[in-house]
Specification:
Blueprint: H1 8-17, H2 19-41, H3 46-62, H4 64-77, E1 81-85, H5 88-101, E2 106-109, H6 113-118, H7 120-126, E3 130-133, H8 136-144, H9 160-170, H10 183-200, E4 203-206, E5 210-212, E6 217-222, H11 226-232, E7 236-242, E8 246-247, H12 250-264, E9 272-276, E10 290-296, H13 319-322, H14 325-330, H15 341-352, H16 354-357, H17 369-373, H18 380-393, H19 399-412, H20 415-432, E11 438-439, H21 446-449, E12 454-455, H22 462-472
Parallel strand pairs: 1-10, 2-3, 2-4, 4-7, 5-8, 7-10
Antiparallel strand pairs: 5-6, 6-9, 11-12
Helix pairs in contact: 3-12, 15-18
Length: 473
């Protein structure tokens, strides 16, 4: 997948001017927030459950090698096959080899962000295999030759009229008089097109929300049922998952499932929650003849034991981005890689390097909402600060930024000089702007005034006003 994270500022500027995107963001983001709040209010023990989820993930990460080996042994005991892949290249090769052995011409796919990270679709297409996305959002994204803009709602950036236009472009036999009034109409059209693909597929690829070490099961949650069809109809099922998806037991998995849907879509549980354990048994009437799990590292193990290990607790609910004011303003594509929003601002530099993704940890107001809604209590702002420190230490930030921070640090370490400089600055700005109300331009403040006015300070410095109020008390 093409990485445009270094162009985040340009991407964001373009997104802010995109009327269609702004319309879609304005309509969609509020619904997620309201539904999550309602779902949480119906579960009195939700906060205690967040602690349980955090502790499960922490325990698993502390014993990751043990649980991965246990999971692999149980997959093989159930008749499945495990493929250990350190890199994206190894994972792509493993998937391609499985498809070739199956003689696959068509591959159906359930939504999988790790497949986006690995570029599975492009790799299969280059080798003559047709990958077909079956998730409704992923399907329209594939028609548009775009990437997802959200990790649970891939077409978050589109409006109903975009769907209709793309269907008419791609589905050339569509009745010209047909109008898509509701989401149901869109779903019916996609389902009609995909039915034959499901039946023709030789291999089905799904992601995995969790991998259960105790049983060797992969678990997926969907609201459309496409995941079930993808893994039961083809002769071969490939579960593609990153190593941090493993959890110790079925009980642990259920605890995390209680957090996942409430945090993601505001449901108590997703419509479909499917556990897959091995290939079809002799007495079973459906299911794949072969079951493969492709376990992908691709940089995760390097995060273990570092200040970024807590990011591996993520269960991909997207609550952080749903509540993020920056994501809500610019959408997912501005982040320039697979994972957007606050979780992407931490995970992306970990996987592709801060040299390519240094803008992302800076794309935050540090309001802290992402951490407050995270179902497993990941301290995202803290880790974004760690990445900012790394960026500064490696001299990756612009010289103007570095000089400004250096000057501020000098004053911050000298409280007397800091208070004196503050008083002088506030006094000068008040004097220069007393008849203006706001500055439209100001030396050394161009980064602010280029996009908005800078209000003239009212009264003295914060410290002076605070001291005055304390004296008055």
């Amino acid at each position: 997948m093409l990485t445009t994270s270094p162009a985040f500022k340009d991407n964001a500027a373009h997104a802010l001017k995109d009327a269609g995107l702004q319309k879609a963001l304005g309509k969609a983001k509020g619904a997620f927030l309201q539904r999550r709040a309602e779902a949480v209010s119906r579960l009195p023990e939700f906060e205690a459950l967040r602690d349980v989820g955090r502790d499960i993930k922490n325990h698993t990460l502390a014993n990751l090698d043990f649980y991965l080996e246990t999971f692999a042994a149980n997959v093989e005991r159930a008749g499945g096959h495990v493929h250990w892949c350190s890199t994206a290249e190894e994972a792509r090769a493993a998937v391609l080899e499985i498809c070739r052995k199956a003689g696959a011409k068509t591959v159906t796919k359930g939504k999988s962000m790790i497949s986006e990270e690995l570029g599975i679709n492009d790799h299969l297409e280059k080798h003559g295999i047709d990958p077909v996305e079956t998730d409704l959002g992923e399907y329209i994204i594939q028609l548009r030759r775009e990437t997802p803009s959200h990790i649970i709602a891939p077409a978050f950036h589109l409006n109903r009229e975009d769907w209709e236009a793309d269907f008419r472009r791609a589905h050339t036999d569509l009745d010209p008089d047909r109008v898509f009034h509701e989401r149901r109409d869109i779903l019916t059209e996609a389902r009609t097109r995909l039915r034959q693909k499901f039946l023709a597929a030789d291999v089905g690829i799904t992601g995995a929300n969790f991998l259960v070490a105790e049983t060797g099961s992969s678990v997926i949650v969907t609201n459309e049922g496409n995941g079930d069809l993808t893994q039961t109809l083809p002769r071969v099922h490939i579960a593609l998952a990153s190593i941090e998806k493993v959890v110790p037991t079925l009980e642990d998995c259920v605890s995390l499932l209680r957090l996942l849907a409430r945090s993601a879509t505001g449901q108590d549980f997703s419509v479909y929650t499917t556990f897959s354990t091995g290939a079809r048994r002799e007495a079973e009437i459906d299911g794949p003849g072969e079951y493969h799990v492709v376990l992908v590292d691709n940089g995760r193990s390097a995060m273990v034991g570092t200040e970024f290990q807590e990011m591996l607790r993520c269960i991909r609910c997207a609550a952080c981005m749903n509540h993020c004011p920056v994501y809500g303003a610019v959408g997912g594509h501005a982040y320039g890689w697979v994972y957007p929003g606050p979780m992407g601002s931490v995970l992306t530099p970990s996987l592709i390097g801060v040299e390519k993704a240094g803008h992302l940890p800076n794309a935050s107001t540090f309001c802290g909402k992402c951490e407050s809604v995270c179902p497993v209590k990941i301290p995202l702002p803290k880790m974004m600060r760690h990445w900012r420190e790394r960026e500064f230490e490696r001299h990756l930030s612009p010289q103007g930024v570095r000089s400004g921070l250096g000057l501020w640090a000098w004053f911050a370490q000298r409280p007397g000089a800091y208070r004196l400089a503050s008083r002088i600055g506030v006094g000068l700005m008040g004097l220069l702007g007393r008849h203006k109300g706001a500055f439209k331009s100001l030396p050394l403040a161009g980064g602010w005034t280029a996009g908005r006015d800078l209000p003239v300070p009212q009264g003295g410095t914060f410290m002076a006003q605070y001291a005055k109020r304390m004296r008055n008390r």
